[in-house]
Amino acid sequence: MLQTASTTAGLISERRTIPSDTAGVELQLINRRPDSVKEFTTERTLVMMHGATFPSASLFDVPVEGESFMDALAHAGYDVWAVDARGYGGSTRPPEMSLPPKEGAPLTSARTAVRDLRAAIDFVLRHRDITRVNLLGMSWGGSVAGAFTAELGEKIAKLILVAPLWLSRTKLRIDPGGALNTYRVVSPKTFETGWRVAAPEQKRQALIPEGWFEAWEQVTLATDPGAPTAGTIRAPAGAVQDVRNHWTADNPLYDPAVIRNPVLLIAAEWDIDVPLEMAQDLFVRLTSADYKRLIEIGEGTHMVLMERNRRQAFDAVIRFLDERFEPSS
Which domain of life is it from (predicted)? Predict the structure, then answer.
């Protein structure tokens, strides 16, 4: 169901909900595209999957310096879609998220998010009458995108993974230890401290240009008007359970060796949540990819898409998508 639509600066913006594979669970899709485009193609269509804590609008659609990541992709000629998994952003939140967080089965695992991503991709394929899409996943969304492509690579043209979760021999910051609740309550202001601390002390202030954090915080808080406490959002805890079940347990969610698509990995120099060595390990395991590329963005953290060097990541994604590619036989 189309909820909102507008045209600004030559771009069409739409938000809609679509059915998931579960009765009563709707998924939000954000779409941004050039208003001049009337015919749609696989090569110019991109679907994006968010990370463990923040939904698509927060990670991909905060306009600073005149445009968001989605805007930049659309200005480059792409029909861009971002999906919220259940429990995130504008998608249906499980009933448990209307109650105070309590110990219990964590909601929205990566396996569940793979199903939601499939619903979104299948909708885009039908809606645009195309046979494949390009796919981008960030952080935990990279796990989801990787697992989807390993299983259903015929639906994907190119795969882009930004700071994707992968195997770790050490504890990850997202997992505080102890019993898990069904969902987490996250304060963007508190998150800012952990965001900046990943950079060297003398670089922390300049990491996020003036006014950018405030813009990001405003968009982020608006994604969850029903949060139990002012200045917070709710995030399902399934991603933390995934860390325990897979990424710190030497139990990969998927086998990179079965992915045949072209793959771009983007890492950041100061990322302490998904350090470069994790991306490098994933990269070498992509043994069947038609071609692959690993790019490290200097002076960036796990949130590189919202930092002063974000354009380097934007440009790397657009160049990769723009490249002509003929699949091997």
Answer: Bacteria
